[in-house]
Predict the 3D structure of the following.
Amino acid sequence: MFNPISHADILTEPASESSSLLPSFPSILFSGFEDKDTPTAASSNDSATENFIIDDPNKASWAVAKILESEARIAQRAQLAKDFKSRIDAWLLSANQQDEDSISYLSFLLEPYVKNEISKLHNSKTLSLPTGLASIRKLPDRLDIIDYTEALSYCEAQHPEAIIIKKELDKSYLKDLILKQAEPIPGISAELGTDRLYVKPLKLQTFSLKEDAA
């Protein structure tokens, strides 16, 4: 049986999101360096950190560690939001099931009566009842392509007029025209890619006992 989400569930984050209770990786490695003179996004406008410059390996290492730490928190929050959304979707599906079944069953019982009563009316396709209006409407025709490859092969041989040829622009060719050959193309905006900093954690190599013995 599905357990509905309580306010406590929503407000309580998993242990990984409560990492503020533990010292951060940069604070351990750079305990004597991380202080009021090291800027963060929240303090980047403070006058005390305006002249901060990364000019040695120690500062660069600290910055990389802080970036990785922030990216990890972002990933944790994204996963948290995904988990909550899955739980909410499951709750909504379960909560609606009984009403969906009721609508389906009662509509099945009601439809023959409504059709019969509407057939007796002259200028209306709607039956007026004390509690609401009931009408019969034709649903749109439905077509599902079960096996796209099989259907396409058949139509190519038997009914080529059923095949739509889609026109698309070749972005690689257009990039060459605009960015390398400097030819302007109406309706297209392009710009050269700029350099961007990326950081990723180190992959520490581990050795087995056999390798160490050798």
Notes: Strands lie at 126-129, 132-135.
